[in-house]
Design brief:
The protein is an alpha/beta fold. Helices cover 45% and strands 8% of the residues. Helix 16 packs antiparallel against helix 17 and helix 17 packs across helix 18. The longest helix has 23 residues. Bound molecules: glutamic acid (GLU). Glutamic acid binds next to strand 8. Glutamic acid (GLU) binds next to strand 8.
């Protein structure tokens, strides 16, 4: 059997990070077995369609290196891969379901249906339509009279439906609790259940991975497969990714869209590694007392991935842990790779900035707010442009690589190389032991000392520089660290900086003197 997995997003907006995890598992299983990873766009609910989202979903998957073997952008032999382009396929199968007793024509008007639903709700019973018992003649007569209809799934009474899910294990459902939902709408569009059934079958999907939110649909799907006489593929209903504060992952507490993480400066490979472990445990043995290995490349994951290692318990989306992964991945890069990735990120930020922050001047009430945002953003973009134009960027990036957790921290931490700090706050607690009236004298002595090192900064020796600053501190009976801090504040404008000596060498004597005086 060829392994064929599918990710089946509905194009209702940006790709959610949970969708990247589903795709990752689909991708890994298909790659491991030399199969195919398919992306199928489920756009049968046209009311929820958001223009541009198909493109965005595909773009994001590619950015995460989860390229589809077949999908809207790559035709295989099973297309089209967008459900609204396959509409003519579904009718034949829904008619077969009707013929086999698994579905029926239903002629309820919207008001009749609403009334019925209300009464079923009051009885806490699952919805049934009276047309489930219509004779073929009655149905034929209504069809001949041109009455509007939907085709509904027929659910048997008093049946226990059992299913073994690859993640959730053995499950039991009572048919009496399952609604008779619509399969084909009055406009001829299939609903999710029908389209999924037909497409998974025609596309020869061998394994289904999807969100745990679809668990209530399992009995419907079991019955549909049974009626058609098709074998139901192994299904894996993936654990729900939880917000640390409880509940579903929330937009209000941080990024949730796949592309947002990349815009913030996470490396896709770090995010993938983090996602691998949200629902899967590595089978690698580890010594008692040792912690489980956590770093896996996509290739290693593909080799190790087995559905038996999927976890049922709901994982927590720990953003601190994600930062930890990102830092690990940044650290492991060579300087050249790091520079290339940073430039790529900065370039994308510059290119998208103009569109995203355009001020709407035509009577927009929020124009002032937007203008302010635009200014903040404009300053940021100007800095990014400076970084991108810097032929010596790698040397500077090298200074911060081991400290950076996320690419977006970099511009601010390197800004002092491009312009002198403004409005330096000397009242910081790191300098509270140094009397303010002593500062000018200390700065003057440091200035004289820096001049004594010579105009060629590349020839400066770290030991000489360090000894000189220490001597100034000793002479004035302040801590060595305080003397270095004075120099740092004057040159960088912040108590935090990349390694100071190397930064000074890059700035050069001239610039240091300007900033000290
Ligand atoms: N279109 C469904 C969704 O967006 C896919 C469910 C499935 O994978 O079967 O969640």
């Amino acid at each position: 059997m060829t392994v064929r997995t599918r990710f089946a997003p509905s194009p209702t907006g940006s790709l959610h990070i949970g969708g990247v995890r589903t795709s990752l598992y689909c991708f890994a299983l298909s790659r491991k077995h030399g199969g195919k990873f398919i992306v199928r766009i489920e756009d049968t609910d046209q009311k929820r369609f958001v223009p541009g989202s198909i493109e965005e979903i595909m773009y994001a998957l590619n950015k995460y290196s989860l390229e589809a073997d077949e999908g809207p952008e790559t035709q295989g032999g099973f297309g089209p891969y967008i459900q609204s382009e396959r509409l003519d396929l579904y009718r034949k199968y829904v008619e077969e379901l009707v013929a086999k007793g698994g579905a029926y024509y239903c002629f309820l008007t919207a008001e009749e249906e609403e009334q019925l639903r209300a009464s079923y709700r009051a009885d806490k019973a699952a919805f049934r339509s009276p047309y489930r018992n219509a004779t073929p003649e009655e149905t034929a007569a209504k069809l001949a009279a041109g009455e509007k209809y939907v085709i509904r799934q027929k659910i048997p009474e008093n049946e226990t439906i059992e299913f073994v899910d690859g993640v959730q294990g053995h499950m039991k459902f009572s048919s009496n609790e399952v609604d008779e939902g619509v399969l084909l709408k009055s406009d001829g569009f299939p609903t999710y259940h029908l389209a999924m059934l037909v497409d998974d079958h025609l596309m020869e999907i061998s394994h289904v991975f999807r969100d745990a939110t679809w668990i209530p649909s399992i009995p419907k799907h079991v019955l549909l497969y049974r009626t058609m006489g098709w074998e139901i593929p192994p299904m894996f209903h993936l654990s729900a990714i939880l917000d640390p504060a409880g509940g579903k992952l929330s937009k209000r507490r941080g990024a949730v869209a796949a592309m947002e993480f990349l815009r913030l400066g996470y490396l896709p490979e770090a995010v993938l590694n983090f996602l691998m472990l949200l629902g899967w445990s590595s089978p690698l043995p580890h010594e008692f007392g040792e912690s489980q290995r956590e770093i896996f490349s996509l290739q290693e994951f593909i080799e190790l991935f087995d559905t038996k290692d999927l976890n049922k318990s709901n994982p927590i989306f720990d953003r601190t842990k994600l930062l930890w992964f990102n830092q690990k991945y940044i650290n492991a890069l060579s300087v050249d790779e790091f520079t290339a990735k940073f430039k790529d990120w900065a370039q994308t930020a510059v290119e998208t900035a103009d569109q995203e922050f355009k001020v709407d001047e035509e009577g927009d009430e929020d124009a002032a707010v937007k203008a302010e945002q635009y200014d903040v953003n404009a300053a940021r973009i100007a800095l990014l442009r400076e970084l991108l134009a810097d032929s010596d960027l790698a040397t500077k990036l090298n200074l911060v690589q081991t400290r950076v957790k996320i690419l977006s921290e970099i511009p601010d931490s390197l800004a002092f190389f491009y312009s002198a700090p403004q409005n330096v706050d000397w009242g910081i607690k790191q300098l509270e032991k140094v009397p303010a009236d002593k500062l000018p004298e200390l700065k003057a002595e440091i200035t004289v000392f820096m001049v004594s090192l010579g105009a060629d900064a590349s020839a400066w020796k770290h030991e000489d520089w360090e000894a000189g600053i220490r001597a100034i501190a000793d002479k004035h009976e302040i801590k060595h660290g305080d003397a270095f801090m004075i120099l740092r504040m004057a040159v960088v404008g912040s108590p935090f900086s990349p390694p100071l000596f190397e930064s000074l060498q890059i700035l050069g004597l001239n610039e240091i003197l300007i900033r000290l005086t």
